[in-house]
Every structure is written in structure tokens, then in C-alpha cells.
């Protein structure tokens, strides 16, 4: 990634694995040994502020990370593993590894550490105090606005996702209103929506609950899908051009095209979603698709088994180029080492494509 010399790096969460204990060595299925650098803070799940800080320091032990950070500025958001897997506000843990069971307490400590290592200047008033706000717009001149979302801080509890009325959803009502307002006001040619979780990929949380937006029901929007349907309808009716979704979370790389003619919900303009990751975790098989918004998986590269190490399956990353003359936006999905696996060129000025 550093050798490509990008203008900036968009990191879509899971910057650390605060709930991922690092063992000195791991035996792989073929008998090879994966050996890890270890630190005291990575010997248990993070609970204290110092332990969360230690997780961020752990990444900086890698000279490749330090060299990249010295050369390339980053736009960073958070997902679940900055706190713990699949967390949501108000959750009380049933996990023997934790002495602190209140996720809100853990999230406050994690948020402080996140802000210390990724100094996002979005503190704002909320209620009687001030909180660190992750969602924001990062503007790069007339060609690009990046809308960084926070799909953790305002979401409702993970559930079967079948409710017919859901104003909280995955963004919260306040963030959804902010996003609609900022998209409508944007004059940039391209409006990249940086979402830490995918739209039409089914991500489960246990046997009955769902972690992302989709919940496997191919019919009309339900649960968190209602909020996304409202947003997509707004984009279409306000004729907002140039929206592209860049998402992550699912530990493989893929390209999905969403079109109303394939969908149960049809009041939206076609759009693309590109998924890529992870940088420092195991690879996982491709998730099932939910047909509510009519996704077609145009490309996917994913391992066949869960949690494959980088010795068994490469890591993935995406690259986006915007041509300054034509305004064309080109997305390339790359494997570790830089090999281009898939590319797509999008034309500027279209409501949907």
C-alpha cells in the first residue's frame, strides 16, 4: 500500500482486536507454526484504559506500519473490535473473560484510547456533556467528499431484525438526518460513503441475531434495513449523484452492484459497494447475500475456511483513483503484494449506474 503512495488511507474499522488475545505461537492445520510478538496488554482481553492503549501500541511495533504512517495520512473509523466483537450500546456481557460486564463502560475507555491514537477532532456536545464523534465529512476539493459513518455508537441491540418499525437502526436517527443533510449539501463529483459494515451481506451474531444491516429475509425492508431504504430513497429523489459505498468487516474482498430491478425494495437508484479487508486478521468465507436491495456479487475473493492466517490466504485492500480531467473513478481490489484482482470504472454525474 505504501509503495502505491496514496493521497490518504481509508481505514474502515477493526483497527485493533481488543478482544483478541495474542498467543506466542499458533499451529496451523498443515502443521506449520505461526509465531507472534506478544505484550502484556495482548495477553488478555482489553478492559482497562491502559489495556486498550496497549492494543493500539501493539500495532506500532511493526516497522511497516510505522513507515506507512510516516508517509500516508489516514482517515479512520471504528467498528466492533476496538471494544469487543459485535458490541452494541447497552449490552451486558455474558463472557467469563471479562470482569467488567457493562459494554458502555468498556466503549468509553476504548473511545478515549481510539481518540488518543487516531486524533479525530470531532468532539461535540451531546446531552449534558461532550462525546467523541466518529462520523464526519472529510473533503478533498471539488472531486471528492468522504462521508465517514459510525455504525456502532448509535445502533440498537443486535436482534433477529424483523421489526416493521425501526427508527434507531444501525445509524441512529440523529446520524441519519446528518448524513442526508450533508449528502444533499455536497457539491463534490464523488460522494464516497465509508461504512464499517456492508449493506447486503448477511453478518450473523449467534444463531438467531444479526450484526449488520441484512438479516437474510429477501423481502421488503425490515429492522435496520428500513433506515437504509430511507437513505437510498432520499438519494434517488434528491437526485444526488456519485454515491459509492466502501465497506469492510467481513474479512474478504468483493464487489456488489445493487439494482432496483433485482430488489424487493425498488425505490432507489443503482449503486456499487466495494468490500476489502482485513489488514491484520484471519480471512473468512464470503457471506450470503440478502436480496432486499437487489445485490449482485460481480466479484469475490475469499478463503473457503474460517480464520485463515496470512500464511494460508492473502490479505486484501482496495485502491480508488479519480481522474482529474475526466472525473472517472476507478476502483481496484488488490491482493497483498499489489496484484489487481478486479477493477471497475465509474462515470461521473450519474444518479445511478
Order of helices and strands: EEEHHEHEEEEHEEEHEEEEEEE
The secondary structure category is alpha/beta
Helical stretch tally:
5
For the sheet with most strands, the description reads:
7 strands, mixed
Amino- and carboxy-terminal Cα gap: 28 Å
Helix content: 10-25%
The radius of gyration over CA amounts to 20 Å
The CATH superfamily of the largest domain turns out to be Alkaline phosphatase D (PhoD)
- What is CATH's topology name of the largest domain? Purple Acid Phosphatase, chain A, domain 2
What would CATH call the class of the largest domain? Answer: Alpha Beta
Instruction: Tell me which CATH architecture of the largest domain applies here.
Output: 4-Layer Sandwich
The general outline is: globular
Unreliable stretches (pLDDT < 50, length at least 5) are 123-129
Oligomer class: single chain
How many distinct folded domains?
2
Tell how many strands the DSSP assignment holds.
18
Averaging pLDDT over every residue, what do you get? 95
| Largest sheet strand order | 7-8-9-12-14-13-15
Q: Kindly estimate the percentage of residues that lie in beta strands according to DSSP.
A: 15-25%
